[in-house]
Every structure is written in C-alpha cells, then in structure tokens.
Amino acid sequence: MTSSPGRPVAIVAAASALHPVYHGPEATLVMTCVNEVRQAAGVDRVDFTMAGSCDYLAGSPFVFVMNIEGMGAWPPIYESHVEMDGAWALFEAWLRLQVGDVDTALVVGSGRPSVGNQREVFSLQTDPYTMAPLGLDPVSLAGLQARALLEAGIATEADFAAAAGRALPGMDPGDLLAAPYFNDPLRSHDVATPTDGAAAVLLVAGDRVAEFTDTPVWITGMDHRVESHHLGLRDLTRSPSAAAAAAHAGAADGPIDVAELMVVHSPEEIVLRNALGLGADTRINPSGGPFAANPIMATGLMRVVEVARRIASGEARRGLAHASSGPCLQQNLVAVLEGEL
Fold it and tell me: Is the pLDDT of residue 1 over 80?
C-alpha cells in the first residue's frame, strides 16, 4: 500500500490501559479501552472490529474470542483477529476501510505477558529445525544483534544506554554502564520489561470524520515488510525491511516531528534510526517507548496511540509510528500520521 490511499482514514479516538501485573481477565483490559474510545468519540456501535493478541502467550485457546466480550458482541458486527501485535490489526482495519464497505473500525491490541514466560514462548517463533531446538529466545538473539553492532563499529554500549535511558529520567549514564551484564553485551536496562495492557483506536473514513472529532489524525501511509527468519541470511546491523516499509509508507515525503519506535532491546534503536532515516530534528520515543511500558501484543499499537496523541494535541504535525515482530526486527510495520491531509 502506497502513501496515497484511495480513501482517507483518520484516528478519531485512542485509549490505553497499562498495568505492571493485571490480575483480572484480559477482556476487562479491552473493555476499559473500548469504553474510553467510544465515550470520547460519542459512538455506541462500529461497523468493523479488529483485534490483535496472542493465544499461546496467554496459555489457553481462543482467548481472542473471550476478548470480544470486552469489545461488545451485540448487536452483531464484522469481526476479525490477527495473532499479532495490535499494530497489524490496525493495518488490516485501515485496508478494510479502503474497500469502502465499512465506515468505522475499532482496533484493539491486548496481552497479559505476566501469566507466561516470554523467553520460552517466543523462542518457538524461530526456525523449527535450526534455531528452536537451541532455545534461542528473543533476548539472546538481541544480544547477538548488539554484538554485531559493536564489532562493526556502528554503535557502542554507551549508545545502548542512551536509548534505554530515555525512559529513566535522572539516571546517570555512568551508572547504567556500570550495571552488571544480563545477556552480554546487554544489561537489564537494555531489555524492556513486559507489561500487562491493552490499547484501542477508532478509525473513521474521511467523509464521516467530522461527525466524531474536530482534531482527526490522518493515517496517510502504512506498510509492512518481512525479512528471512534465518538469521544467517541477514545482516543484523541493518534493517532493509524497515527501510522499505518507511519508503512505501511515504515517510520521506515531509519532515517527521516525532517518531515512536518499538524498541524492546536498546540496540534496535540504532538499527531503526539508520533504516528509517531519522535525523536530529526528530524526537524519538518522547513517551519513553517500550522501556516505559511494554504491553506485549499492544506495544506496536501503543506507538500509534502515542504519536496520535501528540498530533491531536498540536505538539507535532507529522509523525511516524513503528512496530516490529519476530527476532532481531524480522518484521517491520511503519505508519505515517499527520494532522492535516
């Protein structure tokens, strides 16, 4: 999909609910966000509901079906689901609105990583023949990427600390570098801590946006690209998929005031800055990014929410939201958001 969709689509409301550990059902997290979005937009019913979550992270089948209770299953509506971060649910909903058979779409991403062990669960996403038997988990693989950046002279451990320190105001960089290694060359602050949570956005087609808000945030481009899951076939110091997604989403068509990047391991920020062509004039993760809150399966959608909030408030005119999935930035999704068409 190019940066010039046939039918304009805007975010008219957004909400999030974040907890270090949430002891209630995931559907309640979803309902909290959905109710806030509906109240903000003054709408009771939408044409299409799209959710992103992960059943095997929760450890039980068909969790996404139970989550529908939090979105409102009556009166009947079109409903769909992706076993991905909510950012990919947003992508599907955005494309669906291009078709023109629906005018409104509710998008939700949710997860409760506190009920499982992510390092065990997500190792199953790796190649089942050559990598999964080794137990290569996301943190260990991020350590390989960090080492590749260090050995190539592209980054230093101080660069990693600077990326993580954005969510740790007042922390002395020297103290960060003095911390013990967690997965050499990564320290604990280089790895975002999982958070239970959910995020929701309401999308509306352009010809109806004025019915819902005076401050729409337009999605002017979105794209998703994938690289090989065989790490031996990739240069871990680069991200051609992120660069391609940004190019096809139209990121270079104007200045980017703010960018929210799904950096769950600090070395990823260096790779993404270079791939996305972000300069010194772009504020990177002013929210603190995933290091401030990492609601797995909603972390990418939260990047969209954070950018949309800043554009709607007038803090920024044009922003970029990024989401990733898979080991070492295997999959990358980029959305360009603007206050005006």
Answer: no
**Distance, CA of 151 to chain centre:** 29
146's tokens = 């960090």
Give dist(CA 92, CA 99) in Å, integer: 11
What letters, b where the CB count within 10 A reaches 16 and e where it falls short, cover 103-132?
bbbbbbbbbbbeebebeebbbebbbeeebe
Residue 108 has pLDDT above 60, yes or no: yes
Examine the pLDDT at 71 and tell me if it is beyond 50: yes
Q: In the chain, what are the domain boundaries?
A: 9-116+193-211
- Fold for 9-116+193-211, please state it: Peroxisomal Thiolase; Chain A, domain 1 (3.40.47)
Q: What is the DSSP string of 262-320?
A: --SBTHHHHHHHHHHT--TTSEE-TT-GGGT-EETTTHHHHHHHHHHHHHHTTS-SEEE
Q: Is the pLDDT of residue 258 over 70?
A: yes
